[in-house]
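Hey all, quick one. A colleague (J.T.) asked me to put the magnesium ion job into the tracker so the inputs and the structure tokens live in one place instead of scattered across chat threads. No bug as far as I know, just bookkeeping. Sequence used:
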Amino acid sequence: MRLREGNVVAMPTETVYGLAAKALDSKACARIFDAKERPLSDPLIIHLPDMQWLDRLAKPSALAGRLAKAFWPGPLTVVVERRECVPDLITAGQETVAIRMSAHPLFAEVLSILGEPVAAPSANRFGRISPTSAIHVVEELNGRIPLILDGGPCLHGIESTIVLITGEKLQILRHGPITREQLSQYAEIEEKESDILSPGRLKSHYAPQTPMEVHPTSTLKSWSQNKPKVGLLAWQNRLEGFQVVEILSASGDPVEAASRLYGAMRRLDSAGLDLLVAESPPLGGLGAAISDRLSKAAARRDPASSSETG
Ligand code: TXA
Ligand code: MG
């Protein structure tokens, strides 16, 4: 098995495709950074074969235990205090580690055969859109990795929700399929900005190559701009005046919209357009996660934003 030998393998999770390597093997993890051209300052998420591993990698946290019970296997990552056995390469030298357990049957099966955790970031090159199908992984990493397991398109299509746990409180570091509304049933959610290193929170991230802007529906309805080739990433309805239109969900279903988001961005990005405009999603629930991804994709060309596009 390639993973056992210390190699990297791209595999589907229920959120996006991941690039996995044995978590407790620093050399194997180094191959992830190499293939993705990811800076070593950007820590990795560890994926567990079973719940028991949580206690072996992290210091005890009652809240982490409750969240794991409620949402694992599933698209929630908890950031908790790490134990010594977790390699520094994974945590970027921090005292915390990000951990989740994937619900994808193929991913779960591989981990249960392997019998140990893997580190797995999204299987894209650094700063680019996360892959939601095996073909996207080929586009990103062809020639750089030995194996891609094809499990079809990903269910959620956006990355897991990440929460930082401190005692009995949590902070949402990255919005995702598990919503603030769901989390608030388990803990008090702190609003304050943490200074913890989580590059997923950089203003610019998940970026297409084509410049992108996000606008409310009202602006898009009366769209007029002299740029000739503009593509629209529409929420539910087709609007006039655009060269290419991608609709996220004809029924306005946020779950479907999230699952189609990155594929639609990729198609628009390869359509030879001068500008992509995205329609703002409705507020609340999954809308928060989608809105976050859109504004990060748009921030890429904003000179005021960070130059790093993680
Ligand atoms: O859905 C997902 O989470 C996917 C699938 C493959 O599991 N993975 C994923 O990994 O999105 P990645 O590496 O692309 O994004 C993980 C984010 C990064 O922004 C990283 O900085 C942050 O998690 N992170 C990792 N460890 C952390 C830590 N100890 N503290 C704070 N943030 C951390
Ligand atoms: Mg990523």
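Adding what we noticed when we looked at it: Residues 13, 15-16, 18, 42-45, 77, 79, 91, 94, 96-98, 120-122, 159-160, 162, 173, 196, 198-200 surround threonylcarbamoyladenylate (ligand 1) (CB under 6 Å). The radius of gyration is 19 Å.
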